[in-house]
Amino acid sequence: MGLQLAVVLERGIGSAQLRVEDDDDDGDGDSEEDKSYYEHYKPKSTANDQPSAALVIDGKLIADEIRFRIAEQVRRMKGSVGKVPGLAVILVGDRRDSLTYVRNKVKACEDAGIKSLVTQFPQNCKQDDVIHALSTFNEDPSIHGILVQLPLPQHLNEEKILNELKLEKDVDGFHPLNMGNLAMRGREPLFIPCTPKGCIELLIRSGVEIMGKNAVVIGRSNIVGLPTSLLLQRHHATVTIVHALTKNPEQITREADIVVTAAGVPNLVRGNWLKPGAVVIDVGTFPVEDPSCENGYRLIGDVCYEEASKVASAITPVPGGVGPMTIAMLLSNTLDSAKRAYDFT
Ligand code: GUN
């Protein structure tokens, strides 16, 4: 078992239960620079001693259900068109987290009957080699989705590389045209970025009304914070973005009915940052040493779960909340792309 295998403390109403989790959580947050600013805001003491009341939003369960339905549709596509969706992944270097994410994505494709190809380049590879691989996948009709695992090494120009991606295969939704269409009223992006789409799906499937609600998104990364705020607006929430330079982030966050955190700072959001009854979606994932765990590690999020679960009405755990949804949404985007390519409904 690797670092990503964590013993999870799942908290329910007045109960706690140990579960072994083998699905590492995908996630992303703000830049290193932003993170150091957030440190300034960390309160020094814990605030809340009330009994636990929050509904635990089980992302693993919801993602499993979505993946089951996707597998059904892939079988149907194979039966009627004789083809399956195909996903190509480009991985540069050997970052441990990226390797884990890619391994989990490939495994999920396999489970759903989706073909996957991984091209891995060494850390010091040339940009032209990455672009060449991308162009090959762009032209391959059996590939419907292409994913460049981020972050890329410093010497590579992420913008230039992502611009090469064929819009119709941008299953991450990171292409500026997809992001631009997501931002504009009356326009439809071909793909919505996976983690933000997963967050909204969790809210909807948990019966949380978004329309007319005050939502705060903490973090403004291109991968999570920005597209999540755009997507919440599309669902008619009133959205405020809290970032590293925001004054009084606790005060602003306390106004929110829905809080989505993608700051990349462990335990940033304490119980006293939340309005009682708020719904909390935690995108953060960090391994922390814990000798009491089987493998010496456990994962924690941006939110101080112990405190927040006593104030919120519903909350995602880490792991087992947003992470599994990111992968489910990647499969969903890849299937949608193949459906478009084969005119299959
Ligand atoms: N790195 C962290 N999250 C993601 C993601 O959703 N997609 C890609 N391509 N890279 C990531």
TrEMBL record:
Pathway: One-carbon metabolism; tetrahydrofolate interconversion. One of its GO terms (cellular component) is cytosol. Pfam families: THF_DHG_CYH, THF_DHG_CYH_C. Residues 18-48 are annotated as: Disordered. It catalyses: (6R)-5,10-methylene-5,6,7,8-tetrahydrofolate + NADP(+) = (6R)-5,10-methenyltetrahydrofolate + NADPH. Residues 193-341 form the Tetrahydrofolate dehydrogenase/cyclohydrolase NAD(P)-binding domain. GO terms for molecular function: methenyltetrahydrofolate cyclohydrolase activity; methylenetetrahydrofolate dehydrogenase (NADP+) activity. One of its GO terms (biological process) is tetrahydrofolate interconversion. Residues 21-33 have a biased composition (Acidic residues). Gene3D superfamilies: Leucine Dehydrogenase, chain A, domain 1 (3.40.50.10860), NAD(P)-binding Rossmann-like Domain (3.40.50.720). Keywords: Hydrolase, Multifunctional enzyme, NADP, One-carbon metabolism, Oxidoreductase, Photorespiration. Residues 57-172 form the Tetrahydrofolate dehydrogenase/cyclohydrolase catalytic domain. InterPro entries: Aminoacid_DH-like_N_sf (IPR046346), NAD(P)-bd_dom_sf (IPR036291), THF_DH/CycHdrlase (IPR000672), THF_DH/CycHdrlase_cat_dom (IPR020630), THF_DH/CycHdrlase_CS (IPR020867), THF_DH/CycHdrlase_NAD-bd_dom (IPR020631). Belongs to the tetrahydrofolate dehydrogenase/cyclohydrolase family. Homodimer. Catalyzes the oxidation of 5,10-methylenetetrahydrofolate to 5,10-methenyltetrahydrofolate and then the hydrolysis of 5,10-methenyltetrahydrofolate to 10-formyltetrahydrofolate. This is Methenyltetrahydrofolate cyclohydrolase. It comes from Salix dunnii. The lineage of its organism: Eukaryota, Viridiplantae, Streptophyta, Embryophyta, Tracheophyta.
